[in-house]
Structures
1.
Amino acid sequence: MVSRPRIAIIGAGPGGLTLARILHLAGIAATVFEKETHALERPQGGTLDLHADDGQLALRRAGLEAEFRRIARFEDQGSRLYDEHGTLLFADDDAADADRPEVDRTALREILLASLPVGSVQWGHALHEVLPAGDGTFVLRFENETKGPFDLVVGADGTWSRVRPLLSAYQPQYTGITFIEFGIDDADARHPALAALVGRGKLGAEGGGRGLIVQRNGNAHLRGYAIFRVPADWADKTFDLASPAATRTRLIDEFAGWAPRLLDLIRASNDLLAARAIHALPVGHHWTNRPGLTMLGDAAHVMSPFGGDGVNMAMFDGAELARHLAEKADWREAVRIYEQEMFARVAMPAAHAAEAVATELSHIGLELSLQHMQGHLAARANLAAGVTAHGDAARG
Ligand SMILES: Cc1cc2nc3c(=O)[nH]c(=O)nc-3n(C[C@H](O)[C@H](O)[C@H](O)COP(=O)(O)OP(=O)(O)OC[C@H]3O[C@@H](n4cnc5c(N)ncnc54)[C@H](O)[C@@H]3O)c2cc1C
């Protein structure tokens, strides 16, 4: 039996990098293969709230608490809810004492990358397939080369994992919800009224079968998501995404009847305008253990973002897999235990995310969002008063 497996991690996302970092601290080498050609090939996306008992815990175990505190925006945890007429239904503007601070994805990736030895990440390596070598090891096939053999291949390659087909017959399914993402740069200086409308955190608005979420990111960037319940190919058929101006105009048309000050958020967008069809694996997705292969994060359990748990689960998966590999003499047993615990741990957040996406834009969508925000506020007040409360994670 190999005592120290040769480990390949596919994907330098938050989950794969957390795994690589904690393995490194334990003296276990691993190579990360990432399809992007370098760290700044594309903006990594919007802001993420890291929860105390999974995402933040993973960073603590990674020895990156100080770095996390440097990038964490405690001041951006507020939330507001408007109806389509621009009536403010709820505001939690004083949430800086909450324990789910926001971090920008790019900053999170930077601190994880900087914590790894040079050369740990092999950029420009888009995995095509994993091939069993016949002796219990695996070889990785990329476009122009193969790498390996490896004893353990970890699929941390997100929603469309190339490792998953060796473990599971399931594919993520379209949830019925499509986001059109947009960005507004330098909002404080260039659009102070919009910055004030959003506040220090997240603005939600819903009505007439349409939704809008706009979040404050670092550097006074606002990132918005226009939300639709539509067929999967609707965005491609409806928008000319190659033309930001045409997309913006069409998007505003889709929100006909909404308050002008909410539409101004779309009007001011100067960045991005991309379509995201939201996919999820079935709640309870699992597989039979196959020695030498496993998955973590979205590859294992992609869920709708309405639960606000995806990145937290991915990082904690990475931390737990690393812990078991470091602690157990038998690495195959370590992977087996990691998988059993992960399947159980993820079931509840996945169910919440599925429920939240199912009710998004429904006749009770706005009411549920309001209840959820009020629940968060009450849970925080209870916590401050010393009462233990377990708030609903959905619509996070
Ligand atoms: C619009 C939106 C908003 C979200 N908001 C939140 C939020 O607020 N809070 C939250 O907790 N979660 C949120 N999520 C979910 C969160 O983004 C994911 O759960 C999280 O990024 C999963 O991390 P990961 O490391 O598993 O995968 P990913 O972040 O997807 O990283 C996978 C990595 O693998 C690489 N890769 C992919 N294919 C290959 C290949 N074939 N070969 C090599 N490399 C490959 C990718 O380039 C990427 O670097 C949101 C998701 C979306 C879509």
2.
Amino acid sequence: MPPVISPATPSDLPAIFDLLDQSKLPRAGLDQHLGTTLVAKESKRVVGSAALELYGSAALLRSVAVAAERRGQGLGQTLTAAALDLAHRRGVRTVYLLTETAGDFFPRFGFRPIPRSDVDQAVLDSPEFTTACPVSALVMARSLE
Ligand SMILES: CC(C)(COP(=O)(O)OP(=O)(O)OC[C@H]1O[C@@H](n2cnc3c(N)ncnc32)[C@H](O)[C@@H]1OP(=O)(O)O)[C@@H](O)C(=O)NCCC(=O)NCCS
């Protein structure tokens, strides 16, 4: 059976943090956005995640991660599409992301590299931008309009 995508619950947080650690992605601030975090579960085990930080009409897509042994089977794309669908339903107009390792993964969803100076101020002020991700990380954006 394919993994089931569902909203994360507080009890999922330790497993999501483990997955982020294994994927070398930052944990910082994710607990503040659990209500807009999705998990992929296989027999109750968390094997994937994707989260949105909502800032009005802007959102930051973060924590897109798939367990090493489940990669290459479409789960990362399913999680990304589900997070974009959630953003659309929440009225988000622009989705941003930061990545050091997956700049070639996100263009298939319409994300394009942009300069930091073009990022919505509320997203620029988020912990992911200000502390968690190095300034060398690639910034990408996608319009949902
Ligand atoms: C990026 C990631 C989520 C992809 O998940 P996945 O389940 O392996 O991806 P899928 O199976 O849905 O998609 C596979 C496709 O994506 C491509 N792909 C996977 N990881 C990639 C990466 N890091 N960079 C570029 N392309 C990537 C594969 O080459 C494959 O391409 P194809 O369809 O042309 O054959 C996963 O590799 C991961 O958890 N990486 C570590 C964390 C990370 O870097 N997250 C992104 C930053 S938030």
